[in-house]
Amino acid sequence: MLNKHPKALDYKAIRIAGIEGKRYDISIRDGRFTSVKETVPEEPAGQAGYSGEWLPEGEPGQREPAQPAGADIPQADLWISPGIIDLHTHLAWTDFDHADQLKRSSSEVEAMQGAAFGATLRTGVTTARDAGGITPQTIRHLVRSYGHPLRVETSSEMLGPADALGTKFLEGRLAEIYATGAGWVKIMATGGLGAPAEKVLDPVFSEEEFDFIVRHAHAHQIKVLVHTWGGVTIDWSIRAGVESIEHGMFLTADQAGRLAESRTAYVSTASIYRIAADPSGVLALPQVICDRAARAAEAHSRAIGYARSAGVRFGFGTDYATPALHGYNLQELDTLLDYGLTRAEAWQSATSGAAEILGRGHDLGRIAEGYLADAVIWNVDPFQARSADVLRESIVSVITGESEAELAGGR
Ligand SMILES: [Zn+2]
């Protein structure tokens, strides 16, 4: 169930995911948490200090009436967590291979994009950063027309190999990206699954071009995310002060130390490589791609280990881009746990930590007074759930602090 911009919603004695042994009374008004207070335990029945004078003796039918129905939802066995923030999605893509998307009609593509917004929200992701392929205009259209109030930050069209034509050319491309209203610029700094192993860490841009993009973006208050599998472009990213690096499976221990020092975020998007490595999995890719993905996945667990011991800021991201994956975003938590993060670390990377990476640490990613009421209500303890499948089935409702109109403008 989706609960959009609730006017008034109250929970009594609900548990907050990750906080042991406490219950909370939580109020939401106009889409924000207005009160989050630890529940005061009621005195056990029969031990009331005031001797029950107001209870007419011998007339049990005349007790105080129960709370008016509907005033509060019974929440004895519910947990609340902040809405999940996925820092790396591709909501506009419908196929692994872009050539396949081009074969679809525009109305079919749009319907699939609308479905991706819905599936992402229903699994508890209330905010996404799109890492390439969707413009703010399309986001507003989808939010309004399909009724899915997913908050999406975007980089519009990413800068890749076709743009490595010098700084003059890049200046024009950057102006086009800013004109769309994007808040981010995405740099494809290395190859990916399409590149052979011996070439995948080769820089796509010259160092001069790379520095130019970052400097230009920052001078225009635009943030920068960098796709890099590893190698020298991680060093460039740290030195230039980008906001986040993505994937980074060939990160070294030395780079992890400098990444931590610079406070650059690391969005590893680890689960997609395990999925891509499985020839019989949902992506069903050719064997040569599966082999590259398997090599990446193997390196990822090491890179995440280095990053964790160095104290790098982790950001949760999935890189999910097809109908078989949208809505399964919580699988990334399983992979992060498998690769050594604690539950608290994995959840922080997907909530308060991710909000800080977006520069929204002051109003997103926490169950706290004054914060936007983006939240998920669960009927199991999310910190005990065995797997993402259990988590998915335990969602009672997803609450979005903002309505479609607030996210996408009135018209
Ligand atoms: Zn991506």
UniProtKB/TrEMBL annotation:
Source organism: Paenibacillus typhae
Pfam families with a match to the protein in the record: Amidohydro_1
Name recorded for this polypeptide: Imidazolonepropionase
GO molecular function: hydrolase activity, acting on carbon-nitrogen (but not peptide) bonds
Location of the region described as Disordered in the Swiss-Prot/TrEMBL record: 37-70
Lineage: Bacteria, Bacillati, Bacillota, Bacilli, Bacillales
Residue span, Amidohydrolase-related domain: 80-385
Cross-referenced PANTHER family: ALPHA-D-RIBOSE 1-METHYLPHOSPHONATE 5-TRIPHOSPHATE DIPHOSPHATASE
Gene3D superfamilies from the UniProt entry: Metal-dependent hydrolases, Urease, subunit C, domain 1
